[in-house]
Amino acid sequence: MGNPYPWKYNTSENTAAELDPRYETPLGAQERADKAEQDSKEYTDALDDRFKAHTADQTVHVTQTDHNKLDGIEWGAEVNQNAYTVINGIPANAPMTEFTIIQGIGIRVTKDPDGRSVTITATGPVDIDPIPLSKVYDAGNSAYLDAGTAAGNVPVLGVNGKLDAVVVPAIAVTDTFLVAAEAEMLALEAQTGDVAVRTDLSKSFILRVNDPTVLSNWQELLTPMSPVQSVSGKTGVVTLTKSDVGLGNVTNESKTTMFTNPDLTGVPTAPTAATATNTTQIATTAYVKAQGYITAGSTGWAAVTFANSWTSYTGRTVGYIKKTDGIVHIRGSITGGTVTNGTTIFTLPAGFRPTQNMSFVVAFSKGDGTYGTGAVVVAVNGTVYVDGITNNTLIPLDSIIFPTD
């Protein structure tokens, strides 16, 4: 029997043609190995091409950008979470809840699917019918009224942002400041229309331009001049004496010291002087009769013509008489006339006038139970007038006696 494993001793011997398949020669084994390697390479190359094509296919695989997005999703996150939560009090009740914008009166909704946008347009009153006020919620009473400045209108602001002056007239609030000097006035925090009273000048100034620091902006307020400019030739703070009013010889006496019997109400009485008395003492009717002036040869009592509202006191009619010795007597009492110095009571006719102006002291009632003294003057032209008398209640003239020319 021949050697069944001849290659063990001669490896270069070609045994590939050996009929017995159980045996393998080195050359045959190499051929088979090369063939298997080639087939494996061709398979893996084809598989690599297919893998690359598969990984590049974005239809079945996500991109790196998508990977990044997925990486930002927390574990357990809910798929298709609500697109919104609450809009105008309407909550989303499911992940896929839809919110629909519906157009209405005066509102147009335009959709753009390609641009994924919705446009809401206010169409204005041109595109809608007028809405009655009864359909407007909470319009209020003013919605029914016209705008304007007349009664029943609703006032509106003008272009200057203010209400019309017809509705709200301009209001000026004026403050008054008391200052003692110009510097104080210029330092005031004043506004146009404010007044500064200057005690140093006894004058007042009003701010006419809104800058109180400028003297020329202050306008002096003119005070009307008093109708009385002077008293007996005196101005300013006037203090009069009796000589200033022509009463230098008059003594200011009280009723109790001037008369023994001060009762001058009704028919005044006075002490009767002695027949030979020749002084300025008041002459009573008893004294006159004692002098024998009233005789049959006299002219008789004549009535006077009053001026300036003077009249005879009740029961004391005023009259005048000239006796035979040429002496003129005046009797009676006057009342009611003007007591301004120099005011005429009446005028005596020619033949009954003195040779010089004569002043006669008279007592007059003040109307309150007290009396004062003044004078009645008889001028050479016959004018009889008051001087220094301050009350017209009752003025007796019985003391007026004088000689004529």
What does this structure look like?
Among the domains are: 45 residues; 155 residues, Sandwich (Immunoglobulin-like). The protein is 13% helix and 19% strand. The protein is built from five helices and 19 strands. Helix 3 links the parallel strand 5 and strand 6. The longest helix has 31 residues. The radius of gyration is 69 Å and the shape is rod-shaped.
- Overall 3D geometry? rod-shaped
Q: Which CATH top level class of the domain at 249-403 fits?
A: Mainly Beta
Task: Give the number of helices.
Answer: 5
The total beta strand count reads 19
Mean pLDDT: 78
CATH architecture of the domain at 249-403: Sandwich
Structural class: alpha+beta
Helix content bin: 10-25%
SSE arrangement, N to C:
HHEEEEEHEEEHHEEEEEEEEEEE
Uncertain residue ranges: 7-19
Strand residue content: 15-25%
CATH topology value of the domain at 249-403: Immunoglobulin-like
How are strands sequenced across the largest beta sheet?
5-6-7-8
CATH H-level superfamily title of the domain at 249-403: Phage tail base-plate Siphoviridae RBP, head domain
Largest sheet: 4 strands, mixed
- End-to-end Cα distance: 225 Å
What is the radius of gyration computed over CA atoms, rounded to a whole number of angstroms? 69 Å
